[in-house]
Amino acid sequence: MKLIILTLVILSNIFAALPAKSETVLEKIKRTGLLEVAMREDAIPFGYRDSNNNLQGLCLDFIQLLRGELKHKLNLQIISVKIYKSTLFNRFQLLENKTVDFECGPNSIRKNIPDGVSFSRPFFVTGTQFLVRSDNQKNFNFSSSLEGISIGVLRDTTTQELLRQKYPLATYQEFQGVTGRLRGIQSLRRNRIDAFASDGILLIGEAVILGLSLGKDYQLIPAIL
Question: Which SMART domains match (predicted)?
Answer without folding.
Answer: PBPb
